[in-house]
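Risk register update: the risk of archive-format incompatibility is retired. Evidence:
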Amino acid sequence: MVGSEPAPGGQESRLFDTVQSRLLPPRRRSDLVDRRRLVTAFGGRAQPVVLVSAPAGYGKTIALTQWLDADSRPASWLLLRADDDDRVVLLTYLALALQKVAPVDDEVLELLRLAVPPVEERVLPALGDALAAAPPFLLVLEDGERMTQPASWKVVEFLADSLPEGAQLALASRTDPPLPLARWRAAGSLAEFRTAQLAFDDVEARELLARHDAAADDRTVDCLLDATGGWPTALYLKALAARDAAPGEVRDRLCNDEREVEQYFVSEVLDQQSPDLQEFLLRSSVLERLEPGPLQVVTGRDDAPDVLLGLERTNLFVASGDEPHPTFRYQRLFADLLLSELARRHPDEDRRLHALVAEWFRDHDDPEQAIQHYLAAGQVRAAADIVAATWPRLWRRGQQETARRWLAWFSDEQIREYPPLTLTAGWVFSAGIDVALGERWALAACSVRAGDDPSPDGAVSLRSSQLLLRATLALDGITQMRADAERAVRLELARGTSWYAEAHMILGVARWLSGARRRAVRPLERAASEGMIFNQSAELAALGTLGLVAMDDGDWARAAEHVARARFRLNELGFGTMRRSLPILYADARLAAHDGRQVGELTAEIGLVMEQMVPHPWLTLVGCVVLGEACVECGDHAAARRWSALADEVLEGYPDAGILRGRIERLSQALERAAHGQSLTPAERRVLDLLPTHLSEARIAAELCVSQNTVKTHLRGVYRKLGAGNRAEAVERAHELGLLRHQEH
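Archived output:
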């Protein structure tokens, strides 16, 4: 493994199944208040981004649904969930949603199913092209507050900035999203609707009361609006409370603002239901999605789906997706109130219910839901077991952000207390972009006590997983890297597994860096062969490293074969840029320089990749050495000096660098000679240009129309400045420094 990226293997099904009902707006209901005032306001704004931001219970979803009904443009809807906080998952849903309104090719979905989806390289450009060719449309994203990861919001920002003329993106959220709202405001690209606009006015309040048989006079309506601030849910609860009131009590029930909404809910909504139905509501409130299986588990009722349909028909705060396959959930505020009442009436019952449903989700291969419910039940170890066992599958499907998000649900103490979870944090965070987080958990994982128990991540044992992580990070230097890799290979004996290829990959790298170049080839070839089926990114890293080893042997033809095969496989797999592609990029740059091609663009690309990852000393040093050498050969001494300076900086805190230390010193010496070479006079450069030829000193003098003594004087200056003792050495050094035209090489 190159870098600490766990090894993508063969194709597997994703850890999420797309839920089509999330792509449908909530079912239209005829009993809802007509928000024509808001719909008119929505339709009157031409800005491409429409933000609808308000707390729960302000009717954001209802207003947007009615806007979709009234708008003549093609429209699409996406209900966001917490598991969308992984850009691969989010992009999959967005691609499906956009297919309804834009010419998004199915190839985008195929790319997102690759082991390492090429998001920046191909997915986002393809979506951008599709948006550019789309007619005006309306896309609604609901429940934006559920996403927190910057990478997910970057996708939404890209989408908003790529909208075609006449298209709009509407985002409903309880909180303001981490988007460039200030920039959009300044550019006139943002329309905002907040609490003040979403609150009911007197016309809407009267309509609501009338629909629930609680008609009131103007004075009472004014009083009601003062008491609730126009909060739609509070108005609805008060309307329910007044529906069966005696004529003389209506005003008191509507206008009494001393009781909180929760008290209204309990006394006037929940307590009005039968005892059985109350228990059904309370117990089912632990579920985010009201699906038949989990619903039956927490309620203990086989008829739970029928009860749910009855609730939906009576408008009891149940939201559903539209046909043909509706799904149900409680309105968010209603669910919060139910959970609060469950805790009051049945202390600790919520934990028991969470544990029951967690087992159901675990047995039905829904790890995200299982983890969340186990944590809510206080069963941290059970949740940790699922994370530790599932993260390699996430990595194989490109869902790295999901793995990091799952780990963020645990406290540092919880992660440290359980070695499998500590190792998971080491693997996952050290492959991220947060340097402090990556380094902290890398150290913790490498030092935790790991025994011979089977490792949940698929390695033979916890010890083996730790040894491979230690070898991959090589924080203690190359000698220890090789020792850890040798021990790991002796443990991972079963061929046909991802970890077998992984162990041989890192062993080959360690042997090469420790100076055992010939002994590195066999494990690298084995990793490439086994990895082709079971661990494709280890295959790529092995091929790239084999190319670098061949270059060290001076076998440039063989190196070119390895690089060509690696490039072919990289393109064939469709992988995006990742840490494991660095050996291929290193080898490609070095080969390009040897062939006389410029490498500036390629080295700049590599630099960006390296900057976006938690640095691993040995991998950074390899890049500095190889790219520095390539730049020297191309004559780009300024770039070579930058790589050399970075190498010196890394080397200060990394004394055991194996063969890399000598190569860094030789790179520095080459740059020193280059500095001397650049001080050659024009006359000395003319003599130097003729040294690779068969011409004698006398013939050179004749060629340049100078005396032979003058040539001898210039030669002494050339030898001194290049640090050469004779003509052959001067030619060799001049080639190394790029002082001679390549065709003369």
